[in-house]
Specification:
mainly alpha, 19 helices, 2 strands, about 450 residues, globular
Length: about 450
């Protein structure tokens, strides 16, 4: 009996030692696993701020040029100040732990660093600019858009950013359609049936951005959202009769046809080719081309933009070639002096050359070249093809539209999209390497709380 009892004790002790060894091995294995990262979800006010910054906000009224230069403030200006102040406060709130508590400088990618230097160079000429208060406000918009995109992508991720971009475009498209019915003077130009966005939201650029997001599968859409969005975006683009926007869409279609394997854009290109052939067969292409081109006589001079650009370059090279005459000098002073019917400089590149001189133009050119180089690398090695094609398509579209639009850098759908690519493209490139991702993110997603090992071991 005693021997049997001793054998049971030895067997029980062996089982206890095996259980202890198994639990210790399990704890060691669990501790060796990488901790999961939890990406927080934007709050409702952050999503609302995203849409508000993307919208501009709209101007809603015709404003005297001298009133803007002299710094007169009305209710619309107060709304703009409130929206952009909220954007600045949100960015500073997110950066507070990094800047003030740990006293460290946030990590910037090379593209974001060049963008920040470019904005700082434009600020040098604020004292010489016509309307220093207006110039300082617009340049602060550039800085807020650059920082907002970097912080939002670093905190919430690329996928969430694309979802918010689509939501913003969807809301703005519905607002434009509603304005056509309720307030047509904000959208329609001179009763000619052409959609303009001088006082509201540019329908041509908005349509291109909506088409790029839908055709690139960013985000994945159900059919009951995809087809209405395609129809509305295409209608806005066609009704805008903006030739530069048509060229921007063609540039995206070329990128999508070459690199968009498995995306909707590659399926659309053959359909468009069949449509063009059908129009040729039925001799309907000429009316369509007349509608798109509007006036063939303006193609050679680009609606008198060529002589205007020669005049602007001559003026800045004669007076202040290195640092420029101050931002908005081209649109508010020199362009009306040359031809009052044109209104502004009609080119973001010329606005930068005149406002920042050769130094500002060089920095802006370097920023664009770095964005294009990053875009090429994203298309080659990016792990997410849909997001890569979407980001590169948005970049190409904004650069094309900025060639003939002076507001392509300002607050609004096109300007918001351009500054967004300064954060999206480096983030997409960094996704191929977790270590690179932590180097390029300004704000990294917080780590999950460690699991209680004792409770797991007991179970």
């Amino acid at each position: 009996m005693a021997e049997r009892y001793a054998a049971v004790r030895r067997r029980t002790a062996a089982q206890d030692r095996a259980s202890i060894t198994l639990n210790s091995n399990r704890r060691a294995f669990q501790s060796a696993l990488p901790r999961a990262r939890v990406v927080p979800t934007p709050a409702w006010y952050e999503s609302l701020l995203f849409v508000a910054l993307m919208s501009g906000p709209p101007k809603f009224r015709v404003r005297d040029m001298n009133a803007s230069l002299s710094g007169d403030i009305d209710s619309v200006v107060l709304v703009h100040l409130a929206v952009w102040a909220c954007g600045a406060v949100w960015v500073l709130r997110q950066l507070y732990p990094t800047l003030f508590r740990s006293a460290t400088i946030p990590r910037l990618s090379a593209v974001q660093f060049v963008g920040a230097v470019f904005i700082a160079e434009l600020c040098v000429s604020i004292p010489r600019a016509p309307g220093p208060m207006l110039t300082a406000f617009v340049l602060s918009q550039f800085a807020i858009l650059l920082a907002f995109a970097a912080v939002f992508v670093g905190r919430f991720g690329v996928s969430t950013y694309f979802k918010h971009m689509f939501a913003g475009v969807f809301v703005l498209v519905l607002m434009v359609c509603l304005a056509v019915v309720t307030m047509p003077d904000l959208v329609l130009a001179g009763g000619m049936g052409r959609f303009r966005g001088d006082l509201f939201v540019g329908p041509g650029g908005l349509g291109v951005i909506g088409l790029v997001l839908c055709l690139s599968n960013t985000p994945q859409l159900k059919w009951y959202l995809f087809w209405p969005m395609i129809a509305l975006s295409g209608l806005l683009l066609a009704a805008s009769q903006t030739r530069t926007c048509y060229v921007a869409l063609i540039a995206y279609l070329v990128i999508g046809a070459v690199c968009g394997r498995g995306l909707r854009v590659r399926k659309l290109v053959p359909l468009l080719g069949a449509l063009v052939i059908g129009l040729l067969l039925f001799d309907e292409l000429s009316p369509a081309s007349e509608y798109v081109i509007r006036d063939r006589s303006t193609l050679e001079t680009m609606s008198d933009r060529g002589p205007l650009w020669d005049f602007l370059i001559d003026q800045v090279m004669r007076e202040q070639p290195l640092t420029g005459l101050g931002y908005f000098s081209a649109s508010r002073i020199l362009a009306p002096m040359h031809n009052s019917s044109l209104g502004d400089a009609h080119s973001s590149f010329l606005e930068v050359i005149v406002g920042g001189g050769l130094l500002g133009a060089g920095l802006f050119l370097a920023l664009c070249l770095m964005l294009l180089a990053t875009a090429a690398r994203v298309l080659l090695v990016g792990p997410n093809r849909a997001q890569a094609v979407s980001a590169v398509g948005l970049l190409s579209a904004t650069l094309v539209m900025g060639f003939t639009s002076s507001s392509a850098l300002h607050g609004g759908p096109v300007g918001f999209t351009f500054w967004s690519t300064t954060a999206l493209l480096p983030a997409l490139l960094a996704q191929r390497s977790p270590r690179a991702a932590t180097r390029t993110a300004i704000l990294r997603p917080r780590k999950a709380r460690p699991v209680d090992r004792r409770s797991m071991a007991s179970t």
